[in-house]
Amino acid sequence: MAVRALPAMDVQELYRSKLMSAQDAARLLVADSDVAMGMAVAEPPALLAAIARRVETEDLSALRLWYFHSMTHAASSVLRRDLLDRVRPHCMFLSSVERGLMKNDPAHCDELIEFVPTAFSASPQLLREDVALDACVTMVSPMGKHGYFTFGTANDYTSVAARSARKLIVEVNPLMPRVFGESPLHVSEIDAIVEKRSPLITVKDHAAAPEDEAIARIVAEMIDDGACLQMGIGNLPAAVCSRLRSRRDLGIHTELLTPALAGLMQRGAVTNRRKATFPGRTVFTFAMGDTAFYEWLDDNQAIYSLPVDIVNDPRHIAKNDNVVSVNATLQVDLSGACNSEHMMGHQYSGSGGQLDFVRGANASKGGISIIACRSTAKDGTVSRIVPSLEGPVTTPRNDVHWIVTEFGAANLRGKSLRQRAEAMIALAHPHFRDELARSL
To answer: Cα–Cα distance between 154 and 255 in angstroms, integer?
Structure first.
């Protein structure tokens, strides 16, 4: 995106003219309105707390909140159970926050959360064209000397929502890394600025289970020198990355940037030399990790942030050769169709960017799409390989390439339904194979 030419101005004076308290900024919101919220690490704690205080006093109601992946700041403010009669979450990807609300109040699940099925890549268009956003609230990095902020860890849909909303309110946190990329934000585009130094939300991977270690070994063997990686979050992708340290000339084009992927850059396994798009740079749309990771991101010219409708566009992904996409799922049926978002009769997460990266990897020259899962759930009492899915199809059988469990890998491309079923049964836990065979 080209940065628009701006008239000469004193950016420091403009900054000071828009600086106000969180309480005053929250007063810019009006009842019966649509508000986009920065996601994950970019949740603005001071702003959200001030908005919640207005809701508490019933000075603000009928607030429709649009977002992906909420975390602790939203959970302690605008997504509190006692406020949800006045705040209506329009959530496009459920996290533990929404799952906790629904678990604690199962009789009112559908009343508490409006789940909006949306591909992550489609969310910018949705918020730009289909939702009349009254405001956008998000955290940003500090302003540079020329008047530009960055969206830090969260370009995603936020950079688009920020410019689509009638009012843009930002919370400047000196701990938010300045990240190079598209959509730098000029002070002239902002309506209100709040300053708040607060620790960034951190996420750490836990030790991988034996099943995840087995899956990681299989997946890592499928990744050659020069591959362009997309990895999700969690123990399994981190375990895969730990086995790629001796690879050479890897690239990264990923929805989510994590410390595990950053570690491959720091060790020299990632050079991004062979990428056709943004050669020499790691591309991502949002990031989560620990404090050391955020410090590494800051002012790092090897990193490039883009809106999610670009990063997750299968056509853009496929411009790079040898893309390897690694994603997780909750259930796979015998035809290879995957349910990655619904569990035990309820929405569990969302479709996110899984299908986009499956299709992007499939269209990439030499690319492979891998969907991985443990063969069982609930301490081995439930098979994740099933005759038919219990929820929506996140990745259709037509698009699935490789499925991996701790018992092996199966390439489903070109296989008939019978051949697929045989391959999937071989990936199931031995305790369930006979039962699955009888279901044919």
So the answer is: 11
The domain limits of the chain are: 11-195, 210-438
Answer for the pair 134, 167: CB distance below 8 angstroms, yes or no.
Answer: yes
11-195 matches 210-438 in fold: yes
Task: CATH number for 210-438: choose from 3.40.50.1980, 3.20.20.70, 3.40.1080.20, 3.40.50.720.
Answer: 3.40.1080.20
- Between the two ends of the chain, the Cα-to-Cα distance in Å is 52
- Tell the CATH topology of 11-195: Glutaconate Coenzyme A-transferase (3.40.1080)
CB 146 within 8 A of CB 10: no
Q: Which residues of 294-320 are buried (b: 16+ CB within 10 A; e: fewer)?
A: bebbeebebbbbbbbbbbbbbebbbbb
What span, in angstroms and rounded, lies between the C-alpha atoms of 298 and 97?
A: 28
Nearest to 379 by CA among 306, 437, 429, 307: 429
Digit-by-digit pLDDT tens for the chain (440 residues) are 455 554 557 999 999 999 999 999 999 999 999 999 999 999 999 999 999 999 999 889 999 999 999 999 999 999 999 999 999 999 999 999 999 999 888 777 778 899 999 999 999 999 999 999 999 999 999 999 999 999 999 999 999 999 999 999 999 999 999 999 988 999 999 999 999 999 999 998 778 899 999 999 999 999 999 999 999 877 899 999 999 999 999 999 999 999 999 999 999 999 999 999 999 999 999 999 999 999 999 999 999 999 999 999 999 999 999 999 999 999 999 999 999 999 988 899 999 999 999 999 999 999 999 999 999 999 999 999 999 999 999 999 999 999 999 999 999 999 999 999 999 999 999 999 999 999 98
Whether the CA torsion 371, 372, 377, 382 is positive or negative: it is positive
Residue 287 backbone phi and psi in degrees, to 5: -140, 145
Dihedral sign from CA coordinates of 275, 203, 308, 48? negative
**Tokens 């960034």 identify what position?**
200
Residues designated catalytic: 255
The tokens for 91 are 């959530």
Please count the other Cβ atoms lying within 10 Å of the Cβ belonging to residue 338: 27
